[in-house]
Amino acid sequence: MNIIIAGAGAMGSRFGLMLHQAKNNVILVDGWQEHIDCINQEGLKANFNGEEIVEKIPVYHQNEVSNIEFSADLVILFTKAMQLDNMLQEIKSMIGQNTKVLCLLNGIGHEDVIKKYVPLSNIILGNTMWTAGLEGPGKAKLFGNGSIDLQNLGEDGKGAAEEVIACLNEAKLNAKYSDNILSSIYKKACVNGTMNGLCTILDSNMAGFGETNVADDIVKSIVAEFAAVAAVEKAELNIDEVLTQIKSCYNRETIGLHHPSMYQDLIINNRLTEIDYINGAIVRKGKQYNIETPYCLFLTQLIHAKEQILGAK
Amino acid sequence: MNIIIAGAGAMGSRFGLMLHQAKNNVILVDGWQEHIDCINQEGLKANFNGEEIVEKIPVYHQNEVSNIEFSADLVILFTKAMQLDNMLQEIKSMIGQNTKVLCLLNGIGHEDVIKKYVPLSNIILGNTMWTAGLEGPGKAKLFGNGSIDLQNLGEDGKGAAEEVIACLNEAKLNAKYSDNILSSIYKKACVNGTMNGLCTILDSNMAGFGETNVADDIVKSIVAEFAAVAAVEKAELNIDEVLTQIKSCYNRETIGLHHPSMYQDLIINNRLTEIDYINGAIVRKGKQYNIETPYCLFLTQLIHAKEQILGAK
């Protein structure tokens, strides 16, 4: 397949590498010049489950792809949420009538952006358990195993996703069809919608927050807002299950001493956050559905205040 | 008059000094041993509008006053909010049938604590514009001018407060009767209920917060909760006036670069905050009056989380 990895950070690098190794015709598109230069000069490197590998994969800056002759069968979206619209704008000449677009971004409501460029029948929403890290420009660190759940938003449903699933599975990416992808997406968003914003605003790791005597009440209030919005979209959430998953983040023996990604973005790297696509998305949808979402709104506002106070970019 | 200053920090020291200088029989009661020792050994010192003064005023630790023979005509309460109940418990043997109790604490709802010890007819609520600082134990810094508004909660009203007003005015403390003290208290609480919690949780000075593009929306949401609760208690708030006063805190030319007192307490001095008596009081009263107060609740929870994460005491 002709595949565009749109956003070739840590996760995009993993998918690009594995799909390239499975003999697909992969190109990477990204906006980080230093990363692009390294991949161009020395190939995409990775420590792949302990083995050092290098693969020559074409890579382009997203500002320079509008004239490239490449007819994509599949686009996999892995940008930061706020970069999605711009990325689709840049690559739209490579998206044809039959190009499937698989969205694996964190957060909620990306289909509202994608459908400006792609018919619903070609949009596939996914949720992945794969992980990945970058050691530096051009160098990924890829350990462990994962999987992908995905669902086509068109009337064809499963039929329209079959080729994509087969392609991902040839690359050992463990994809399977889901009739209920929104529930998985909302469930993951609940974890991000609590841990990310709260640990960032409190300048705390997950255990530090989770061990306070207000953690339960705060988390329940936020999850209730997510669940109310999700219910309107027929994405039922098992709240006990969600709360249990959130509590597992507090465990000091596993991931409790880590800071979530938003903390890394804002507090460590002084970058703007994805809050508008997590809690902020619940606020927008809440307005649309006439559901009160004060906790998501206040948390979104506080994170934006913090971004501005720190001069994040 | 026989006067107990219950809580002899910065403001208590100002009132104690000025009332002592006006020939009242003042005693100070406090819980900070080093401060008490300094006052006992060298007198209460102050830089009083540029002049260095010292006054010998009796001072007692609040744990040691239960056996003192002192029949108070007036008690002026200046403790931290969370210390109020305990202080009243300690000094209650000095409070008689005719002792007036003037409460000048920041925050809301202290009358609910005081009325456990004192009949309503003897409770006087006040709001003061005086300021004061401590340079260290036993040494106050007292600059500028101020005033006090006060109101008696009993049926006698003004009549029951006249002697107290006269006494305060002999000491040049500029007291006057108000028929609407709750409105002033709520107005001041709105300033504290926004600047204190928000600057503390955002680790920001007042200008830094005020200049963000979310400041207005956050402040309006919080003030609306205060106003809804105040309205039930017939304390009308002029919301535009309150918002204007809050915005004046953002001015970099005046106080905008300062951190509010709660920031000093928690972030600088690692002490527990008074949030339960500001935003937390609105939450309690909101429950009682069936008014939703999600912003005050979430802010109160976040401050408590921060206290616990920092191990404040």
Quick gist of this model?
Two copies of one chain form a homodimer. Chain A has two domains: 176 residues, Rossmann fold (3-Layer(aba) Sandwich); 130 residues, N-(1-d-carboxylethyl)-l-norvaline Dehydrogenase, domain 2 (Orthogonal Bundle).
Tell me the layout of helices and strands:
Two copies of one chain form a homodimer.
Chain A: E1 2-6, H1 10-21, E2 25-30, H2 33-42, E3 44-48, E4 51-55, E5 59-61, E6 72-77, H3 84-91, E7 95-103, H4 111-114, E8 123-128, E9 133-136, E10 139-142, E11 148-152, H5 158-170, E12 175-177, H6 181-202, H7 206-210, H8 215-232, H9 239-248, H10 261-268, H11 279-289, H12 294-310
Parallel strand pairs in A: 1-2, 1-6, 2-5, 3-10, 6-7, 7-8, 11-12
Antiparallel strand pairs in A: 3-4, 8-11, 9-10
What is the CATH superfamily of the largest domain in chain A? NAD(P)-binding Rossmann-like Domain
Q: Which class do the helix and strand fractions of chain A yield?
A: alpha/beta
Proportion of strand residues of chain A: 15-25%
Number of helices in the DSSP assignment of chain A: 12
Helical residue percent band of chain A:
40-55%
Physical arrangement of strands within the biggest beta sheet of chain A: 5-2-1-6-7-8-11-12
The low-pLDDT segments of chain A are none
Q: What's the story with the biggest beta sheet of chain A?
A: 8 strands, mixed
- Quaternary organisation of the protein chains: homodimer
- CATH-defined architecture of the largest domain in chain A: 3-Layer(aba) Sandwich
Provide the gyration radius of chain A in Å.
19 Å
Number of strands of chain A: 12
Mean pLDDT of chain A: 96
Pfam family, one (chains A, B): ApbA
Catalytic activity (chains A, B): (R)-pantoate + NADP(+) = 2-dehydropantoate + NADPH + H(+)
EC number (chains A, B): 1.1.1.169
InterPro entries (chains A, B): 6-PGluconate_DH-like_C_sf, 6PGD_dom2, ApbA, Ketopantoate_reductase, KPA_reductase, KPR_N, NAD(P)-bd_dom_sf
